[in-house]
Write a structure and sequence with these properties.
Helices cover about 35% and strands about 15% of the residues. The protein starts with a helix and ends with a helix. Strands 2, 3, 8, 14, 15 and 16 form a six-stranded parallel β-sheet that branches. The chain has a single domain, classed as TIM Barrel (Alpha-Beta Barrel), CATH 3.20.20. By secondary structure, it is an alpha/beta fold.
Length: about 325
Amino acid sequence: MYTVKNILSKTNFLLQRNPRIEKNTNWRKYIPEPYKSIITITSDFELAWAWRYSKDNKDSLLFALEKGRKERNNIPLILKLCETYKIPITWATVGHLFLEKCSRTEGKPHSQLGRLPHFENKYWLFESEDWYEYDPCSDVNKAPEWYCPDLIKSILASKIEHEIACHTFSHIDCSDSICPGEIFNDEIAECKKLAGLSGLELRSFVHPGHTTGNLDNLVKAGFNSFQTDPGNILGYPVRHKNGLWELKRSYELVYRNDWSIDYHIYRYSEIINRAIKNNAVCNFWFHPSFENIFLADILPSVFQQIDKERNDIWVTRVGDYVKWLNKSE
């Protein structure tokens, strides 16, 4: 499909403007011997929670439920691919997904947690009475789009050692101008409590909707990394004064209607090649609710390419990479 947008996208890619390549003569500080590159893959694991206030859909709740069902169908297949190609994923997990069920207390869902005020950002518009208005206060069997301890157990039981990271309890906007510290702290404490019941310690964090904020509160809660999306970069992590590592996202794994299957595979494979050639860190990310065609016809080739280049690439979880960064400082 030869639209102006498509032509510009392919031109910018050809000219290596997207993703942009950072240069650093001291690249060995960020990539251990004997590797030439790092690849991490993060999944924003949300089911219906991410989409319920989406501005791009007339019926955002219906859209959210459809996304949740797609995600449920896709994740077992993604896990099989991970085992085939020995690819670990960092699953940035909405905390509510740990629950098998929930109910109303004092007439409200999760009454112990603070509520965001009304807000609008790039992706969402929240102007309803209660942030938890769509929480079914049911269980995983009756409302599987909102709970999934079964999928989390499948991830933890995989032959590949994946990482469970934090994506807040209810997929909030975390930016300092919208989210008061006490609400952020409540959300994170709830996530850590539920993860702890599964024997997990959450150390890696992904802000929902790229709403970076509350970084000092993140440190106080025991996290050591977060991810940003400054415009697709093959580059290097940044250590903040508060001790947090910032990992810049490189490219989203997603199906685009104006690209052929072959072009998708070429583009992702070339990003991997550029990361190796330029001794850069590549942080892929995706929503597990992507289209079936991507899962069936594109993702296997991407994983195969990563596996093929394994001698030159350290394919690792975010948490393991940050541990190495801390040791190498």
